[in-house]
Each structure stands twice: as C-alpha cells, then as structure tokens.
What we know:
Blueprint: H1 2-10, H2 17-49, H3 52-55, E1 59-61, E2 64-66, H4 68-74, H5 76-87, H6 92-109, H7 113-131, H8 138-176, H9 180-196, H10 201-207, H11 212-232, H12 234-246, H13 254-259, H14 265-281, H15 301-316, H16 324-351
Antiparallel strand pairs: 1-2
Helix pairs in contact: 2-4, 2-5, 5-6, 5-7, 6-7, 6-8, 7-8, 8-9, 8-10, 9-11, 9-14, 11-12, 11-14, 11-16, 14-16
Amino acid sequence: MDKVKAFLKRKDIVISAKRYGVDALGAMAQGLFCTLLIGTILNTLGTQFHIPFLTAQIAVVNDVGYTVGGLASLMSGPAMAVAIGSALNAPPLVLFSLITVGYAANTLGGAGGPLSVLVIAILAAEFGKMIAKETKVDILVTPIVTIGIGVALSYFCAPALGNAAMKVGELIMWATNLQPFLMGILVSVFVGIALTLPISSAAICAAFGLTGLAGGAAVAGCCAQMVGFAVMSFKENKVGGLISQGIGTSMLQMGNIVKNPRIWIAPIVTSAITGPIATCLFQLQMNGTPVSSGMGTCGLVGQIGVYTGWTNDIAAGVKTAITAMDWIGLIMISFVLPAVLCPLLNMVCRKLGWVKDGDLTLS
C-alpha cells in the first residue's frame, strides 16, 4: 500500500473531490465556454447583424459546412478534455492525446456529452499520467495508452451517460403535461438545473422538441441561472464574470457549487418563481427552434428564439402582432426578474450563514 501511495504521489494523482469535482469541473466549464458557447455567440452575431464572415461556410467536414462559430462549437469536446487534463497537471503527451479522447466522448455522449467528457477525460488522463515517462518509447506508449483507454471508455460508457442525461429530458417532458402553473415551476427548475450541470440542456430541449409554453418556461429557468449567478456574484467577479456567466454559461459556477451547494439555492428558487410567471402571467411561448429553449441568455439565443417564434406565428396567421406585453414579458423574464430576485434571495442565504464572501468567485 505504501508503494502505491508513493507511486501516486510521484505521478501527482490525487483522488479527491476537490481535484475532480472542483478543479477538473471548473476547467471543463472554461473549455466549454471557449468553444461551444463562443461559437454560439459568433453564429448569433453573424445571423442577426448579417456579417458575411461569420455566416459564410469556411470549411467542409464530412460533407457538412461549418461557419467560424460552427468550427468553434465542433471543438468543444477536445477543448473540455484538454482543459481537464491541464487541471490535473497532465504532462504534454497526455494532454495532447486528450484531444482525441474529448472528441470521442463528446460525440458518443449525445446530450450527456459534457458529462461523458468529464468522467472519461479524468480516467484517461490519470491512466496516461501513470504510464508517462515510464518507458524508453514514451512518445509512442503514452499517447497509445491515453487514447486507447479514452476511446474505449467513450465507446462503452459515453452512450450510457448520454442516456442518463436524456432521463432528465424525460422528466422535463413529464412536467410539460401538468397544468401551466405547476408545469411552469417544474420545467423552469429542471431545465435551469440542466443548463448549469455538465450536460447539454440545449440538446435535451432539441431532442424532445420543447417549444410553446413549456419552451417559455425553459427559457425562464435558464435565464434565472445565468443572469442570476452573473448578478449575484458581481461583487466577486466584476464585469468579466457578469459577461461570461450572463451571456456565456452558469456552468462556470459548478466548481463552486460542488464546494458549497447552497450557492445554488437562490438561482433555483428564482427559476421556480419566474417559470410560472412566464407561463401564467405573460403566457410566454418559445416557438422558435427547440434548441433555443435550453440556451437562456447565451448569445441571447433564447430571446432570439422567442422573437423568431413570434414572427413565425404571425406569418402562419396564429398571431396577429407582437404586442408591448410580449416585449415586457420577455424582458422581465429574461433579465429584470432574475437580476432582482436572485441577489435578494442570496442575501437571505448570506444572512443565514449559508453563503459567504468568496463562495461565488470564479477561478
């Protein structure tokens, strides 16, 4: 046992909740932000402002055309895996080999792609670290072991992790069958939680075709998490944190959530409040593409999806015009209510001693 401990120490393999649940998870969120979310923002900017460079297909991969944003999003798996490897202090040959592992895990994981990358990249990186510099042909052995283990785990385990993520989707779809008030609460809470967890809320919403009032509730839940975390952590993270969480992703807080789950109370309760307000008071519907239901304020995709739905409904004769109440509802649900309610609820948590200074600081 002492020899094993000494070996693990020499290889800098620390089996702990902090190393895997805080350091690796926090780094993975940054990798996701720099690829999928930045890609989404670039695509949105290009489409809405008619920027040719951002809307043009600049590359074709397997007969699929990609824009600049599309290429960034395509690389989300490799970026997350490399970020995880960096957090685990992986040596160069292991780190570079994780590019292949991340792509395989994310692709085979489906809606659970980020979760698959997290689990599989950690295992592949640690096994790679074990073998690194242990042979005279390290440049061959280390990549073979890292990629071999990572891709094998992706093949056998990633689909199961993806199916587990889709169970969240089934729970969301069950909630959509309830009357608007309860549906508004549950869909908003479930999708908001999915957005912040290392799974793809957008993929879940797309897979289940989540639109209409349920889509509006989903938008509310995502905004409660993103805008809520961004505003209530402004003291710690300033303008950079406001932007990265507010139009990026609340997943950046997952490392902090693992350390102190109580910081999640305010955004979740906020989503439980704004969801039924969206469905019952404003009757907010998201009739754009279903993927927009799970994007929230990321690149303003959720809000653009709602607007696109309005124009589609007008063209189909279902809706006569976009009213002032429509705009008030969208703005209140997306921005104003989360920005007001979440910090107030977090103040209560601070008074109770559940949340302290520094708990929301992004690394």
